[in-house]
Amino acid sequence: MTFLEPLTLTGRYVILEPLAAEHHDGLVAAARDGELWKLWYTSVPAPDKMAAEIRRRLALQDQGTMLPFTTRLIDSATGGPGRIIGMTTYMNIDAATPRVEIGSTWNAASAQGTGTNPDSKLLLLRHAFETIGCPAVEFRTHWLNHQSREAIARLGAKQDGVLRSHSRTSDGNLRDTVVFSILEHEWPAVRAGLEYRLDRRGEGRG
Hints:
Helix content: 25-40%
Number of domains: 1
Structural class: alpha+beta
Distance between the termini: 38 Å
Radius of gyration: 16 Å
Shape: globular
Strand content: 25-35%
Strand order of the largest sheet: 1-2-3-4-5-6-8-7
């Protein structure tokens, strides 16, 4: 299945490339940009746990349940790959439907609000709907992660529901998980909205 094969996706601001062990130092630097692992409602690996997280994601890739990416900025001077700013994935892959969840995503603090997130989501959603042929794409986040919930809603995703006491966080507390999705027939409007946001940013209007 094509969506299980590592691939590189290139947008206006970011390049999503297959996660590899040699990305370790760049990912550690990105996580230190804002000390993201200290945010209790996220699951960003601490610097000393980054190698284990890379191995975990690559093991899930081998099992066919995750396709992990490293997110890089596009270098404005060369147009090629620039510094690493984070990670994202296709996860909970259902090859039979097919259906994927876009998640386990984080970006360096200095890259947030710069167009990198909508650009990344446009790349992943376009590939999921237009190449893989997914009838739906899912997003999940912590009930208390209001920033993430608002960002997902801005994409045009609709909330499906809340899974109460769904899983435990790294500190052992129970988490309520909010589930969102975008359906295939909704994709053209979502795509247009993302492209409009990127066009406005390119014109210097945020």
